[in-house]
Amino acid sequence: MTRQGPGPGPGPGPGPSLVALPRLLIRHELRLLASLWLWAVRRTHGAVAGGSVFGYARGQGAMMSGFAFVCVVESVMMSLLLRDWPTVHHVVLVLDVYTVVIVIGLHAASVVRPHVVDPAAGTLRIRRAVHVDVRIPLERIATVRRELRATHERADGELDLAVGSQTSVTVELAEPVAHVSFFGRRREVRVVRCHADDPGAFVRAVDLAREGHAVP
Question: Residue 131's Cα: distance from chain center in Å?
Answer without folding.
Answer: 5
